Amino acid sequence: MPTRSADATWEGNLPDGNGVMTMESGSYEGPFSFRSRFEDGDGTNPEELIAAAHAGCFSMAFSNVLDEEGYTPDSVDTTAEVTLRMLEDGPAITKIHLNSTASVPDIDEDTFQDLADAAKSGCPVSKALAGSEITLDATLRS
Question: What pTM, to 2 d.p., does this model score?
């Protein structure tokens, strides 16, 4: 399995500085700042990138779990919401909520929910973020 990387450069102090994040693949390069992370400023932030990674990983993991059980999904659409809170020892990601809707022919609701939970537990990004509470709402699209 390959090792993936990304770069981040920060210039200046925390409240007034700014930075740029770049993916090794070249698929993304964008700015980030204190405002984009802790307020509503332009640019991305680490939590948004974690959300994208988790949504993508879960969608792939769920598709794989379904396929291994003999169900071929038409689609799996997932949104991840990453909650950053200020704790006594500083900011921390405390919760990640996955909201997934999938179109899967010929599957019953109970099996669908069981496989969604299995995908949440088995997703590599879920495993990496296990220090945060991870919740899931999975909806079977008819």
Answer: 0.94
